[in-house]
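Morning - BIS(adenosine)-5'-pentaphosphate inputs below, output right after.
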Amino acid sequence: MFGPPGSGKGTQAKKVAASQGLVHISTGEILRSAIERKTPLGVLAQQYMDKGELVPDEDVQQMLANAVDRYIAEGARGFIFDGFPRTLDQAGFLDQMMKERGSEIQYLIFLDVDHDELVKRLLLRGKTEGRSDDTLEVIENRLEVYKKTTLPVIEHYKKQGKFYPVNGVGTIEEVNARICAILRKS
Ligand code: AP5
């Protein structure tokens, strides 16, 4: 599940995971849990996340591979990744990691949402849930980092014929129906 901060990756990934019997892996959620538990990774990650910067590739990659292997050992039959890959290096890593485990990425579902709507959603969540990176200054930096560093990942999967854009504006159910239509068709 791919898209800018606030596009609904987490919301939609949870729904698709539940309906398709997949394991949902959110790198943001794993990192927030590490921060809460004050693990060495959490202490490192907080310095980046507070500013809306990306946590270094090698740390997130190791964390992701550990999570995937743990779920495979528990019998997982497929995954939906949310918030990963976010750099071209991470995309290369993910392809290789899946290959080594006899699998591959099938879809990059891109949730397309305009800038004003993203800022509106995230400011609202900042007020209601108090997520520490949902302040205007940090939101704008997250969107900037996304544009500069994460957006090029789209090209990587377009070249592989795996890019599926979805209009991410509408109710949660409407967006979900658009995603399900893609999964049914292909
Ligand atoms: P992460 O947790 O991935 O945050 P994000 O990408 O900024 O995305 P959000 O969780 O804010 O939004 P979302 O697209 O998941 O939308 P959501 O469903 O929550 O990452 C946080 C940080 O961790 C990063 O900045 C980075 O520092 C670090 N990190 C994570 N992964 C990394 C990686 N791979 N490499 C390096 N660093 C990494 O929805 C947002 C809000 O909108 C919610 O309130 C929701 O209820 C609402 N909403 C959802 N859908 C709709 C809709 N259709 N209409 C109206 N509101 C909606």
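Note: Residues 9-185 form a domain with the Rossmann fold fold (CATH 3.40.50.300).

O.
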